[in-house]
Design goal:
CATH class of the largest domain: Alpha Beta
Helix content: 25-40%
Number of strands: 23
Largest sheet: 6 strands, parallel
CATH topology of the largest domain: Rossmann fold
CATH superfamily of the largest domain: NAD(P)-binding Rossmann-like Domain
Structural class: alpha/beta
Shape: globular
């Protein structure tokens, strides 16, 4: 498969790296000499040029491409380049073959155009990636724990959580996974990724040993399981309130979406906005009229104001400002004034690990969410999320359907003959109400036609597994 990526920023280069790890043929086009230089050394074709110029698509070999991803920071350029890519591909192939276009956008207006089906008609955009809701979902799940490094929702109440192993984890450290299973009350959580300093990440086997400071990725069902996992691996767990009291700094796009999400989760919300127009717009909106929300026009760095609204009585403070540094400052001030849990959605990926060392509870890199979302779109035959693990980057998770032609439909996992290089994390099955439910993959569990398997494996084996499943 050949994938052309327009835009050599963090999303474009991160996507290129992930696709190359699957041995996909990747071409990256960007008009910044710096971006081109940064992309070199990745074993991809890098072209210096403008993605709104027909000649650059010809130079990139558009006629042999199956996917074009527009991933610059400009919605308008991304949309225009998708339209142009479709047209050039049709010209060069004389209509023989299809090109799927994936467009990264920020403006909700374009999202609405896509959801109505109109963007595909006038701009040739097959899929839109707008990672805000995905980032909010990850942030909310992460804030319900006290020490998780990453939380990746995998639909149907299934999660992958990532964390460091502490020396206090007496039941698991210096033991193999097989031995730990006998020591941990209630059974050992299912580890699907293991990373140790100086070594590549891997899908662990029963004979792999766990050491202090290892980074592990664990498959689990339900947020209620997070605290048990934290305790097993040596962390202190703090219970989360049923009806959290949340303060949000900023009434922009992300702040408003956060407010709605927490209200939907039965929380009460206070929004502090420095800009009077934004505060008034939220107050006059449907969300602003809901029960449980208070909107305050004022400075989020005004200690007097924060004391007056009793910020220390809030369970969570989330900073949703347009500037990362301003968001960090607001979250740190909230922490200093007594808020136990603080959260951020960041633009700069390099700051995600930095802010944790500052004491901020949980942060999300929205560009990484964008990469995962684009990868899920590229793997169109795979129903569900596709995720590159954050702390175990040499392992990816995918969802695979069980079809009637799969020989192991009707067999148990133990007898299915799945390759040794992969590990099943979840079985997801539809109930009588057509709702997906998540089950733990015990060896004796029978696989039925229509089930979805969430499987973790090295990225360079994804193609092999797809061929084995004939997806």
């Amino acid at each position: 498969m050949r994938v052309i990526i327009g835009g050599g920023g963090r999303v474009g280069t991160g996507l290129a790296k992930a696709l190359r790890s699957e041995d996909k043929d990747v071409v990256l086009v960007d008009n910044s000499a710096r971006a081109v230089k940064n992309s070199q050394g990745m074993d991809i074709l890098v072209i210096h040029g403008d993605i709104t110029q027909r000649g650059k698509f010809i130079e990139a070999g558009i006629e042999s491409a199956q996917v074009y991803v527009a991933a610059t920071n400009s919605d308008e350029r991304n949309i225009l380049s998708c339209a142009l890519a479709k047209h050039v591909h049709k010209e060069r192939t004389k209509g023989d073959g299809e090109l799927m276009t994936i467009c990264r956008v920020r403006n909700p207006i374009f999202v609405k155009e896509y959801e109505s089906g109109k963007l595909a008609k006038w701009a040739g955009v097959d899929h839109v990636v707008h990672p805000v809701d995905g980032a909010i979902e990850r942030l909310m799940s992460g804030l319900k724990s006290s020490s998780l490094t990453e939380v990746i929702p995998f639909e149907a109440d299934a999660f992958i959580v990532e964390l460091n192993v502490k020396s206090e984890a007496g039941g698991v450290v210096h033991r193999t996974l097989r031995d730990s299973g006998e020591k941990v009350e209630g059974g050992m959580p299912l580890i699907v990724g293991l990373k140790r300093d100086g070594m590549l990440g891997k899908v662990p086997t029963a004979d792999d040993q766990i050491l202090p400071n290892d980074r592990v990725a664990i498959a689990t069902a339900g947020e209620a399981s997070f605290n048990r996992i934290l305790r097993i691996f040596g962390h202190e767990a703090v219970d989360f309130p049923d009806k959290p009291k949340v303060i949000i700094f900023g009434a922009g796009l992300i702040g408003v979406r956060l407010a709605k999400a927490w209200l939907d989760a039965d929380g009460s919300v206070t929004v502090v906005e420095r800009d009077l127009e934004k505060a008034n717009n939220l107050a006059g909106s449907e969300i602003g009229s809901r029960k449980g929300i208070e909107i305050i026009h004022g400075d989020h760095l005004d200690k007097g104001l924060l004391s007056e609204i009793e910020i220390s009585s809030h369970d969570i403070a989330i900073s949703a400002l347009d500037d990362d540094n301003a968001s960090i400052a607001a979250a740190l001030l909230a922490s200093d004034m007594g808020v136990e849990r603080t959260g951020l959605i960041l633009y700069d990926a390099d700051l995600v690990n930095v802010v944790r060392r500052m004491g901020i509870t949980f942060s999300v890199d929205r560009k990484r969410v964008a990469i995962d979302t684009i990868l899920a779109r590229i793997h169109t035959e795979l129903p569900g999320p596709y995720a590159v693990l954050s702390t175990v980057p040499d392992v990816v998770g995918i969802c695979l359907p069980i079809k009637s032609e799969n020989k192991f439909a009707g067999d148990t996992i133990e007898n299915a003959g799945l390759p040794d290089y992969c590990k099943v994390a979840f079985i997801q099955r539809q109930n009588i109400h057509n709702e997906w439910e998540t089950m733990r993959p015990s060896p004796q569990k029978t696989l039925l036609e229509g089930d979805r398997l969430t499987i973790f494996l090295p990225p360079d084996r994804v193609d092999d597994l797809e061929k084995k499943f004939k997806v």
